[in-house]
């Protein structure tokens, strides 16, 4: 009502002052601001048409107020984009000005006593997905939990765990996943799981690094299962275990199966050329940003990581033939033999896929394009010079690093410090590839961690080079997979983007996290081949037909890959931080796909054990009773009010429509949703 009065010049100045006070003082919830969002673009158009000093001044003040609200309630890019477009012509206040306005007008107590109303007054998201209540700057955990939940193979495996599995933290995760799957509530509280998975060095109520939390969580789950396996190993030695149970418990842990990969680090002494190597496991790859002076396209590596746009173009035949490991002894190079030549790191950009599909015959290294089509492919398809992409960061991670000066390598053969070259090679691709973009760096001048706000383009499909040993090469060829170079070499493994965790803010100690997610599976519903086997999903279906969702604490909404790609363009402080990719089957021998098929995980949701189903049923009944009680209380409250004076008329007509919730309050984290029209104003 107050907002609509901005249309009338005679009351505009007073209405704007009241509106500013209402929005800047009530910072407990985003709801008051979100009620205005659909009406802002129309008001801006009307005031622009008026073209008066009053209208222009009011628009500038309104734009400043809106940017304050964007800063305070981040994480709603789908709602904010049309508004941002409407006010893009007006000045953007700097951060100090925004903080001053928010601090000057905020109520002295910003405690969230009203949070208990939020879940009861909310309605379940039209997406059918369930949100997580923010328990006080716990959006870092909520975004990670939703990303893990949307990793369907991992979720199925967790839900399939039997009772008495001697894994208390995994059991709590199973219960949390089960409630996210089957609860009738619009949002549930992860309080029990938070207390169980809380890293001991985290400060309660403070914002934390979601990547740090994810690493700690996966490590805890892994170690917990390993401990259980050691117990069963002792039972086996006591002849108390059957061979079936023995086979089950002595395999890899679930975390290793789902997120575990292997990497070979090789160091070559530049004096004696001796090579030392070490293989180590990883659950995520931390990707640093190359220094500004480093020209990404000029670096060389063994195999380019390819970026494939939404309209996935099938790569040329035998894409892995051109190279093997740079330090494996091979036969002398033969003219025209692509396997003997190094390759510059190149990527395929979205804009240039069409050009890349028809490579030219000439290229820098003089290799015949008919013999090495991917070489020509790369020459024609470079992203803009100043842009960065996820493949750029992976190629930088995999490119050789020179160890000199104070970083010299102690060579055992030379028995002294020597200049050396270090290179990392992926030897086993994980089922779910987790990439962390290292956006937070320490600034020695300010003695603080600063955030790298560079926009990084995210490919929906990624091709990763995996080193294959000679014996594995033969097995892969027998299964009809991509054929690496003779004597062992690299093969391309295809990954589909599943989740993107976004950090909104300029510091790891503040800001807000939310995530975009979709479910990637091996099969398409109702798709069956003639022999009854599941039909693999086509590239188009993987790219376009799988629905994206935006998870922002309790608020869950439909989204799209376009929104994922453009979020940083619209909101410079909202940047992709943690990425989840799922390996597409058929590119690398992966026993996990066979294990999933054996467990029946690919066919519908798993059935839950009795205790868990009973707990969910009881909670759903309790929620319905709470809803009925709340409706009665509200009806009684309204009926007891004085009969409609004019100021109350419109409040009587208000509905309990919920635009739900998220956001991290500086004091108490936000979360939930509800309508407080009569209660507050």
TrEMBL record:
<dbReference type="InterPro" id="IPR049407">
    <property type="entry name" value="Usp38-like_N"/>
</dbReference>
<dbReference type="InterPro" id="IPR050164">
    <property type="entry name" value="Peptidase_C19"/>
</dbReference>
<keyword id="KW-0645">Protease</keyword>
<keyword id="KW-0788">Thiol protease</keyword>
<comment type="similarity">
    <text>Belongs to the peptidase C19 family.</text>
</comment>
<dbReference type="GO" id="GO:0005829">
    <property type="term" value="C:cytosol"/>
</dbReference>
<dbReference type="InterPro" id="IPR033840">
    <property type="entry name" value="USP38"/>
</dbReference>
<dbReference type="InterPro" id="IPR001394">
    <property type="entry name" value="Peptidase_C19_UCH"/>
</dbReference>
<dbReference type="GO" id="GO:0016579">
    <property type="term" value="P:protein deubiquitination"/>
</dbReference>
<keyword id="KW-0378">Hydrolase</keyword>
<dbReference type="InterPro" id="IPR018200">
    <property type="entry name" value="USP_CS"/>
</dbReference>
<keyword id="KW-0833">Ubl conjugation pathway</keyword>
<dbReference type="InterPro" id="IPR038765">
    <property type="entry name" value="Papain-like_cys_pep_sf"/>
</dbReference>
<dbReference type="GO" id="GO:0006511">
    <property type="term" value="P:ubiquitin-dependent protein catabolic process"/>
</dbReference>
<protein>
    <recommendedName>
        <fullName>Ubiquitin carboxyl-terminal hydrolase</fullName>
        <ecNumber>3.4.19.12</ecNumber>
    </recommendedName>
</protein>
<dbReference type="GO" id="GO:0004843">
    <property type="term" value="F:cysteine-type deubiquitinase activity"/>
</dbReference>
<dbReference type="Pfam" id="PF21246">
    <property type="entry name" value="Usp38-like_N"/>
</dbReference>
<dbReference type="Pfam" id="PF00443">
    <property type="entry name" value="UCH"/>
</dbReference>
<dbReference type="InterPro" id="IPR028889">
    <property type="entry name" value="USP"/>
</dbReference>
<feature type="domain" description="USP">
    <location>
        <begin position="130"/>
        <end position="584"/>
    </location>
</feature>
<dbReference type="GO" id="GO:0005634">
    <property type="term" value="C:nucleus"/>
</dbReference>
């Amino acid at each position: 009502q107050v907002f609509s009065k901005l249309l009338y010049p005679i009351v505009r100045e007073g209405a704007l002052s009241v509106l500013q006070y209402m929005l800047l003082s009530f910072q407990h919830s985003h709801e008051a601001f979100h009620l205005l969002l659909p009406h802002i673009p129309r008001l801006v158009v009307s005031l622009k048409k008026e073209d008066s000093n009053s209208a222009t001044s009011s628009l500038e003040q309104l734009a400043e107020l809106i940017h304050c609200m964007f800063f305070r309630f981040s994480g709603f890019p789908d709602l904010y984009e049309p508004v941002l477009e409407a006010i893009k012509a007006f000045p953007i206040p700097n951060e100090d000005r925004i903080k001053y306005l928010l601090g000057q007008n905020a109520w002295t107590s910003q405690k969230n006593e009203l949070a208990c109303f939020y879940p009861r007054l909310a309605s379940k998201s039209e997406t059918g997905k369930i949100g997580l209540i923010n328990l006080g700057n716990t959006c870092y955990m909520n975004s990670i939990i939703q990303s893990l939940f949307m990793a369907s193979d991992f979720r199925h495996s967790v839900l399939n765990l039997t009772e008495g599995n001697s894994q208390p933290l995994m059991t709590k995760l199973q219960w949390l996943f089960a409630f996210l799957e089957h609860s009738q509530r619009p949002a549930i509280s992860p309080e029990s799981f938070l207390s169980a998975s809380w890293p001991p060095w985290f400060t309660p109520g403070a914002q934390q690094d979601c990547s740090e939390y994810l690493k700690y969580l996966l490590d805890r789950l892994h170690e917990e299962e390993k401990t259980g396996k050691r117990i069963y190993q002792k039972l086996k030695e006591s002849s108390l275990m059957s061979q079936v149970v023995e086979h089950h418990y002595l395999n890899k842990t679930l975390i290793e199966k789902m997120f575990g990969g292997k990497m070979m680090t090789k160091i070559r002494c530049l004096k004696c050329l001796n090579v030392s190597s070490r293989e180590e496991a990883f659950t995520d790859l931390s990707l640093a940003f190359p220094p500004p002076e480093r020209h990404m396209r000029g670096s060389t590596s063994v195999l380019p990581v390819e970026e494939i746009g939404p309209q996935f173009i099938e790569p040329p035949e035998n894409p892995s033939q051109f190279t093997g490991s740079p330090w494996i002894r091979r036969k002398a190079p033969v003219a025209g033999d692509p396997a003997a030549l190094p390759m510059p790191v190149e990527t395929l950009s979205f804009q240039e896929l069409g050009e890349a599909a028809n490579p030219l015959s000439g290229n820098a290294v003089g290799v015949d394009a008919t013999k090495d089509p991917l070489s020509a492919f790369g020459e024609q398809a470079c992203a803009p010079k100043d842009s960065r992409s996820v493949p750029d960061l992976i190629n930088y991670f995999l490119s050789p690093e020179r160890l000199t000066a104070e970083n010299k390598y102690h060579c055992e053969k030379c028995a002294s410090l020597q200049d050396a070259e270090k290179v990392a090679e992926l030897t086993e691709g994980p089922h779910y590839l987790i990439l962390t973009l290292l956006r937070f760096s320490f600034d020695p001048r300010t003695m603080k961690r600063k955030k790298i706000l560079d926009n990084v383009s995210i490919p929906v499909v990624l091709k990763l080079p995996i080193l294959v040993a000679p014996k594995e090469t033969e097995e892969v060829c027998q299964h009809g997979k991509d054929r690496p170079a003779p004597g062992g070499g690299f093969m391309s493994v295809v990954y589909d983007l599943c989740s993107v965790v976004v950090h909104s803010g300029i510091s790891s100690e503040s800001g807000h996290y939310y995530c975009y997610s979709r479910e990637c599976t091996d099969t398409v519903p109702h798709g069956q081949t003639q022999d009854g086997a599941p039909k693999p999903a086509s590239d188009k279906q993987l790219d376009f037909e799988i629905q994206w969702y935006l998870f922002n604490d309790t608020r869950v909404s439909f989204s799209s890959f376009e929104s994922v790609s453009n979020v940083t363009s619209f909101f410079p402080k909202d940047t992709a931080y943690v990425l989840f990719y799922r390996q597409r089957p058929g590119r690398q021998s992966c026993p996990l796909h066979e294990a999933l098929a054996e467990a029946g995980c690919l066919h519908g949701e798993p059935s839950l054990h009795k205790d868990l189903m009973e707990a969910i049923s009881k909670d759903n009944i309790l929620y319905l009773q709470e809803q009925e009680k709340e409706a009665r209380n509200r009806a009684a409250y309204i009926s007891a009010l004085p009969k409609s004076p004019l100021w109350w008329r419109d409040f009587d007509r208000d509905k309990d429509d919920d635009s739900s919730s998220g956001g991290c309050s500086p004091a108490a984290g936000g979360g939930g949703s509800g309508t407080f029209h009569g209660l507050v104003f």
